[in-house]
Amino acid sequence: MVRVLRLSVGDTILLLDGSGLAYRVRLDLLSKTTVRGTVEAQIRAGGEPPYDLTLYLALLRGERFELVLQKATELGVRRIVPVQFSRSLAGERADTKKLERWRRIVREAAEQSSRARLPDLSEPLNFRAACETAAGSLAFILWEGTAPTLRSALPAQLGSVAIFSGPEGGIGDEELTAARERGIIPVSLGPRILRAETAPIAALAAISYQYE
Ligand code: SAH
After folding, report:
1. Which residues of the chain are in CATH 3.40.1280.10 domains?
2. Which protein residues are within 6 Å of ligand 1, measured from CB?
3. Full pLDDT tens readout for the chain, 212 residues
4. Homologous superfamily of 52-211 in CATH?
C-alpha cells in the first residue's frame, strides 16, 4: 500500500475477512511501518459460487499439484483435500513446510481472483479415508474409463458436491470399486485421456459454466 500502490490518506481499500464479508476502509494514516484506516461499510463480498465444492485431489508431482491448487481456487473450489492414491507418483509425505507453501498458493490465488472466501486446504488423506469423509454427500469420481458424462450426472440445482480426481497412474480398479461402494459416482469428461492436472481443472470449469 505504501511502497507499491503508493496509497495516501483518504484513499479507500477493500479488506476481506476470508469468511465472505468485506469491509470498505478509508485510510487515515500511512507510514513506513503502519497503515491505519476506519471501516466505513461492511458488505457481503462477491466472488463465491452458489454451490459448495470439495475437490479430493490426487497428490501430484511438484508444480502440477500447485497448478491445480491455483486453478481450482480461481474456479471457485471451497475446500481441497489432497489424496494419496495407490498409483500416486508423488509419494512424499506433505510436511508442514509443504502445507504452508500450498496454503500460500491458495491464498494468493483467492486474493488475485477477488474471492470473498479463502478455500481451505486440509491435511492429505489416503483414498479410503477420503471416501469415508465424502460418503453421504453428492460425490463424483473422474474416471478415465467408460462412464456417464459429468454433464448427464449433474443435478438441476447444486448444493454441496465432492469431486475426486485421480493421479498420473490413474485410479486402480479396487479404488473405483471402493468409491462405488460408498455411492461415489464415476463420471467421464469425454473420450480423451486428460492429464491428472487437466481433469480437475476441466471439471471445475464445466461446473462453473453450468451453475454460475
Ligand atoms: N490411466 C491414464 C492416466 C490417468 S489420467 C494413463 O496412464 O494414461 C489421471 C486422472 O485424470 C484419472 O485418474 C481421472 O481421474 C482423470 N481423467 C483423465 N481423463 C479423464 C476423462 N476422459 N474423464 C474423466 N476423468 C479423466
Report:
1. 52-211
2. 142-144, 165-166, 169-171, 188-190, 192-194, 196, 199
3. 999 999 999 999 988 887 888 899 999 999 999 999 999 999 888 899 999 999 999 999 989 999 999 999 999 999 999 999 998 876 656 788 999 999 999 999 998 998 889 999 999 999 999 999 998 899 999 999 999 999 999 999 999 999 999 999 999 999 999 999 999 999 999 999 999 999 999 999 999 999 99
4. SPOUT methyltransferase, trefoil knot domain (3.40.1280.10)
* pTM confidence score: 0.89
Probe ligand 1: pick from 55, 142, 197, max atoms within 8 Å of CB?
142
| Per-residue H/E/C for the chain | CCCCCCCCCCCEEEEECCECEEEEEEEEEECCCCEEEEEEEEEECCCCCCCEEEEEEECCCHHHHHHHHHHHHHCCCCEEEEEECCCCCCCCCCCHHHHHHHHHHHHHHHHHCCCCECCEECCCEEHHHHHHHHCCCCEEEECCCCCCEHHHHCCCCCCEEEEEECCCCCCCHHHHHHHHHCCCEEEECCCCCCCCCHHHHHHHHHHHHHHC
